[in-house]
TrEMBL record:
<dbReference type="InterPro" id="IPR049704">
    <property type="entry name" value="Aminotrans_3_PPA_site"/>
</dbReference>
<comment type="similarity">
    <text>Belongs to the class-III pyridoxal-phosphate-dependent aminotransferase family.</text>
</comment>
<dbReference type="InterPro" id="IPR005814">
    <property type="entry name" value="Aminotrans_3"/>
</dbReference>
<keyword id="KW-0808">Transferase</keyword>
<dbReference type="GO" id="GO:0045303">
    <property type="term" value="F:diaminobutyrate-2-oxoglutarate transaminase activity"/>
</dbReference>
<dbReference type="GO" id="GO:0030170">
    <property type="term" value="F:pyridoxal phosphate binding"/>
</dbReference>
<comment type="pathway">
    <text>Amine and polyamine biosynthesis; ectoine biosynthesis; L-ectoine from L-aspartate 4-semialdehyde: step 1/3.</text>
</comment>
<dbReference type="InterPro" id="IPR015421">
    <property type="entry name" value="PyrdxlP-dep_Trfase_major"/>
</dbReference>
<dbReference type="InterPro" id="IPR015424">
    <property type="entry name" value="PyrdxlP-dep_Trfase"/>
</dbReference>
<dbReference type="InterPro" id="IPR004637">
    <property type="entry name" value="Dat"/>
</dbReference>
<dbReference type="Pfam" id="PF00202">
    <property type="entry name" value="Aminotran_3"/>
</dbReference>
<dbReference type="InterPro" id="IPR015422">
    <property type="entry name" value="PyrdxlP-dep_Trfase_small"/>
</dbReference>
<protein>
    <recommendedName>
        <fullName>Diaminobutyrate--2-oxoglutarate transaminase</fullName>
        <ecNumber>2.6.1.76</ecNumber>
    </recommendedName>
</protein>
<keyword id="KW-0032">Aminotransferase</keyword>
<keyword id="KW-0663">Pyridoxal phosphate</keyword>
Length: 433
């Protein structure tokens, strides 16, 4: 069955398939960190549905919540009507919002994907401000629909001004040592304040508190506070894309909490649906310039996703899983840094909480003019393959696809973390040869 399914889907599906190309497995069962393939092999899943599975696969509280809705006879499709399930989800979500946000928040159900919520956020601030331009960052990833793509790294759109995101290891200003963030902030300020700078008054600024697909790059807290101040001073709504960083992943319930900033709009998806598709934006009520019907969508009321999501949010909150992600993540980060000390092919180890990245480089590429070695995407592919052979699923990211990303569930045990790190170290040693 395993080979047949892989073969047929490879023939029938689009050439754009991504995960399926690098992970030749046919998952048939899963629980927690573990996925079992049709061939009977078991894997530790540190991709977690691209960061979706805060509680791992098929967590009992999530399954119970879904079963409860199914058993109740409630309608599964309700457009955007109010239901008890939606009420419970919204109440639970609002209870998690950063201080200073919940009292004055509005929610718009989008859906079903993260990229839909990004579109809604861009449209909301454009409607509210009557302006068109957007400020976005190098290396960003916001989704695959036209608006979200336009604000993602590498894309070009006349309405989008690209600003430097602080990436200390490959600092575009050659500064490093954390000073690049200061230069990037000043550059942004001077650009916005120069009447001849060519940046029309923007409708908003969109950023990820930790760039995920861009290579697991946490923004320094001080830089985020600078972005908050400079946007507030110029009446530019600040949009935080917490699609990947939310629900405890980085060690706080929402990643913006590390810096203490309160954005004007938060984009949420992935983990808020407890493994089912769900996406929302939450924003300051003052931005609610939409008329009824201004933003629609057939699949805005997925009852199963809301029930699974409410159960997930409650479980993360009650069990303080954000704290757990912080402490276990720090331990894993330290362990990976230890590995870097004995492997020159590891250029940088980064992360926050259980969002970890290992940037692989070619140490032989260092020259007097180029102290930071070039990325090594081929080694990264080899490491991912070696991980898979050892029963560990990881994914690559970064501007050169040379960063190995680890996004384990927040329910990861100490023993599982050790197993993940051991397999990774073993795979690295094998791939390096
Ligand atoms: N924003 C961020 C920060 C993301 O990481 C992603 C998905 N990786 C998206 C938006 C898009 O979400 P989706 O794939 O559900 O459209």
């Amino acid at each position: 069955a395993h080979e047949g399914i892989l073969h047929r889907q490879a023939q029938r599906e689009s050439a754009a398939r991504t995960y399926a190309r690098s992970l030749p497995i046919v998952p048939v069962r899963a629980r927690g960190l573990t996925i079992e393939g049709a061939d009977g092999r078991r894997y530790l899943d540190c991709l977690s549905g691209a960061g979706t599975l805060a509680l791992g696969h098929n967590h009992p509280v999530v399954l119970e919540a879904i079963k409860k809705v199914l058993a109740s006879g409630a309608p599964l499709h309700v457009l955007d009507l109010a239901t008890p399930v939606k009420d419970a989800f919204t109440t639970e979500l609002f209870a998690t919002l950063p201080p200073g946000f919940a009292d004055d928040a509005r929610i718009q159900f989008c859906g079903p994907a993260g990229t839909d919520a990004v579109e809604a956020a861009l449209k909301l601030v454009r409607t509210a401000t009557g302006r068109q331009g957007m400020l976005a960052f190098t290396g960003a990833y916001h989704g695959m629909t036209a608006g979200a793509l336009a604000v993602s790294g590498g894309a070009t759109d006349v309405r989008v001004t690209r600003l430097p995101y602080p990436y200390d290891y490959r600092c575009p200003f050659g500064a490093g040592g954390g000073r690049g963030a200061e230069i990037a902030a000043r550059w942004t300020e001077s650009l916005l304040d120069d009447p001849r700078g060519g940046v029309p008054a923007p409708a908003g600024m969109i950023l990820e508190p930790v760039q995920g697909e861009g290579g697991v790059i946490p923004a320094p807290d001080e830089w985020l506070r600078r972005m908050r101040t400079l946007t507030a001073d110029r009446s530019i709504p600040l949009i935080a894309d917490e699609v990947q960083t939310g629900v405890g992943r980085t060690g706080r319930f929402w990643a913006v909490e590390h810096s203490g900033i309160v954005p004007d709009v938060m984009i949420m998806s992935k983990a808020i649906g407890g493994s089912l598709p769900l996406a929302v934006i939450v924003y300051r009520s003052g931005l609610d310039a939409w008329q009824p019907g201004a933003h629609a969508g057939t699949f805005r009321g997925n009852q199963l996703a809301m029930a699974a999501g409410a159960a997930t949010l409650a479980f993360v909150r009650e069990n303080r899983l954000a704290d757990r992600a912080a402490s276990l993540g720090a331990r894993m980060l330290a362990s990976l840094q230890g590995l870097a000390a004995s492997h020159t092919c590891i250029g940088d180890v980064r992360g926050r909480g259980l969002m970890l990245g290992v940037e692989l480089v070619d140490p032989a590429s260092v020259t007097a003019d180029r102290p930071v070695p070039l990325p090594d995407p081929r080694l990264a592919v080899a490491v991912r393959r070696a991980c898979l052979e050892r029963g560990l699923i990881v994914e690559l990211g970064g501007r050169d696809a040379s960063v190995v990303r680890l996004l384990p569930p927040l329910t990861l045990t100490d023993e599982q973390a050790t197993a993940v790190l051991d397999r990774f170290a073993d795979a690295l040693a094998a791939a390096e040869r």
